[in-house]
Specification:
single chain, two-stranded parallel ribbon, 288 residues, 38% helix, Rossmann fold, alpha/beta
Length: 288
């Protein structure tokens, strides 16, 4: 792979990608719109659907306006644009796992603007004869993510378990989700950049449905946490903008030769050890 311009190189995934492949990455500055390389990995994005409550324009500025400024600089360049999108663009689906052929039904400003960005990119590249791919990520987890109740809820709950604070499980933790460890996400993105057919959408995930409540219970027991676990009803807005059960069909990704290298329990152990270290506590004992 020739050197690649990474937009969003200071974010959770971008910084890890840059660390894993330092000799192959040109890390673009946050406000940069002029790619240094003709191969582009574009990761700039908001990260959740809740900005509608505090800044109606943030998702538009971040997910659309900045992208258009970068594309303007690509108009006369011979570029290959690898756009990193999200499983949120699919919206509520009745057939699981979800393939790349599924009709998208995004809801919420984040999901809608991500799908709009995909469509604008595709139209731009067809109009000006540019090469592109769209890579739709599942839930990404791993040490170092800046999490909140609205972003990466699983790791947010792990933080609270480490501190012994109460956590709330929506719908009793029965919701099914698709997770992939951040290092594997980076490996998958590199695989797609090198091997995926042009003009194609590729799902990037673990492809395995995991019950959130079971993951939380595993972490609670491994940590020996005294946190109180409360099972509550999912808030109305969350039900509106996020599917209850969701996991991706990753057949296309698998056919490119990718397979995860970090099993889910090992990934969770790494996250818990990182949170324990931040809290000044001892790491977990090795699993038998």
């Amino acid at each position: 792979m020739s050197k690649i311009s990474v937009f969003g190189a200071t974010g959770f995934i971008g910084s890890r990608f840059s660390a894993l492949y330092p000799g192959e990455v040109h890390a673009e500055a946050r406000e940069s719109v002029d790619p240094a390389c003709d191969d582009i990995l574009y990761l700039i994005s908001t990260t959740h659907n809740y900005h509608v409550f505090d800044d109606l324009e943030l998702d538009i500025r971040t997910n659309l306006t900045h992208l258009m400024r970068v594309l303007e600089r690509c108009r006369t360049r011979d570029v290959t644009f690898n756009f990193v999108s999200s499983w949120f663009v699919y919206g509520e689906q009745t057939e699981l796992p979800v393939t790349e052929h599924a009709v998208c039904r995004p809801d919420g400003f984040y999901a809608i603007t991500k799908k709009c960005a995909e469509d604008l990119l595709g139209s731009f590249c067809r109009t000006f004869d540019k090469r592109y791919r769209i890579l739709r990520l599942s839930n990404v987890y791993g040490p170092g993510d800046r999490v909140s109740r609205r972003k990466n809820g699983l790791q947010y709950m792990i933080q609270r378990l480490v501190r012994g604070e109460a956590i709330e499980l929506y719908d009793g933790g029965a919701a099914l989700r698709d997770y992939l460890y951040v290092d594997d996400v980076c490996r998958a993105l590199k695989t797609c950049v090198e091997r995926a057919p042009l003009g194609e959408i590729v799902n990037v995930g673990g492809g395995v449905p995991l019950a959130v409540g079971e993951l939380v219970e595993y972490c609670r027991l491994r940590l020996g946490s005294q946190s109180r676990v409360e099972r509550v009803e999912t808030p109305a807005f969350r039900r509106q903008v996020q599917a209850r059960d969701f996991w991706l069909d990753v057949t296309r990704l698998t056919r490119l030769g990718f397979a995860p290298s970090v099993d889910f329990q090992s990934g969770l152990d790494r996250v818990m050890d990182a949170e324990l270290a931040l809290a000044g506590k001892l790491p977990l004992p090795a699993r038998p």
